[in-house]
Amino acid sequence: MSFSNLGLLPELLRAVEEKGYAAPTPIQAGTIPAILAGRDVLAGAQTGTGKTAAFVLPILQHLTRDGGNAPRALVLTPTRELAAQVADNATGYGRFLKLRTVVVFGGVGINPQIDQLRRGCDLLIATPGRLLDLAEQGVLDLTHVRYFVLDEADRMLDMGFIPAIRRVLKLLPPERQNMMFSATYSDDIRALAQRFLHNPVSVEVASRNATADRVTQSLYRVPKDSKRHLLAHLIQEGNWQQVLVFTRTKHGANRLTQQLADAGIAAAAIHGNKSQSARVRALADFKSLRITALVATEVAARGLDIKELPHVVNYELPNVPEDYVHRIGRTARAGSTGSAVSLVSADEEPLLRDIERLLRSSIPATPVPQFPILNTPVRPDRPAERDSRRDGSTAKFRASNGGRGSRRSGGAQQGSARGSGRGERQAEGHAAQRSHAPHRSEPRSSQSAPGHSRAAEHSRDRRAGGQPRSARPTQEPERAGGSWRRA
Ligand code: AMP
Q1: Is there a single domain that holds both residue 150 and residue 241?
Q2: pLDDT digits (tens, 9 = 90+) for 189-221
Q3: What's the pLDDT tens digit per position in 103-147?
Q4: Which of 301, 376, 394, 421 could serve as a FRET partner for 86 with CA atoms 20 to 30 Å apart?
Q5: 50 Cα: distance to centroid of ligand 1 (angstroms)
Q6: What residue owns the CA closest to ligand 1's atom 16?
Q7: How many domains is the chain built from?
């Protein structure tokens, strides 16, 4: 199958060729002819499958047919990052056509977006909150929309966007072609599809809720308080150049970013508390390999498209098993391979079971290697980035320790960091006192390497106070509320 068999205009074929795409991906081969034929489409495809081109290319082709100043195609995305990415792609694919693509999302000034819309727009890409703001202000006319795409519909649902989507649908004319893309299917997704798709062509590129074929998945069973040391070890020993690390909370993302920086690994955090400019910069630094690790929460990382991202780490397992599929979909994107590593502490075993049930397979456990415990200085819980850039997107190397972090033995760490979070803080307190001495790198030694067992962790838990840890994490995960809901 080649792109020229799909019925696309020469201008689009040229753009695709210049992008270096040799052949359409399965989702593109399945949806492009259907969309060109005017059919509604329900597509089961996660990011990384080439789904953006699958709807953007045929929509651009439709848009060449007639003109006007108000948008005739609308793509709704759950996050600003995804909106920006879809817009980038659309601009690239449409570079030989005279079409105007505008992207609108919250977190940035509305006036430049209003100006752009006034200058004319053919394809509009938007997050729901800002779209509704603009429509309510009377500066956006959606009555000419003929092509409507709901991208990452399952994310939309998770993020509580259904009422907003309903309101958007009311602003659109009834006569239109609808497309819905979703990585996972649930009854809610099916109900949503039934509500606004008419006799859709169903295209599914991977089996339902399947993970990307080319992702090598593995897990390490490791105590919570050793995770950061193991992660630093994996990055440094594996000479990883680019790794996306998922944490469950914004606070956790900040803290880990700082800990990685203390270990000599350039890292930045990306989450919903960051300003848009900080997020854009962190992503740009990550894409250009200026930083090694991007530490992200679920919400912030949705839809991120980073070319050939080789490593994804689940520093904490997600509460919702479907999120695991989304997370590991960040790697092994169209045509490349990747690895997804999960660091699983004893309290996360129930989450792991849920994920494996969804995958209908188990994730292979890798023996925990010998790894050093880094002696990182204690610092108050605060966003890591304040140390470096003004609005804080990047935690840089610490000059004082030569960028490698000083090390102390696993034995010492185990002795003081038993079990609970309180234990961990105490351990860091000891480290802080020691850190008054100048940092220096100590040679790694085999005795400094705790390949902890789950049994050991459980026994530490008991010693730490006799209370079993709760099966579920206690810290509140980042939710799609506040400004996110407003997009
Ligand atoms: P998406 O699933 O739309 O986020 O796309 C993931 C990545 O695949 C993007 O970086 C695209 O540029 C790339 N891509 C899309 N279509 C193709 C193709 N036919 N061949 C190679 N790469 C592609």
Answers
A1: no
A2: 888 898 889 999 998 875 434 455 567 899 999
A3: 999 989 999 999 999 999 999 999 999 999 999 999 999 999 999
A4: 394
A5: 4
A6: 50
A7: 2
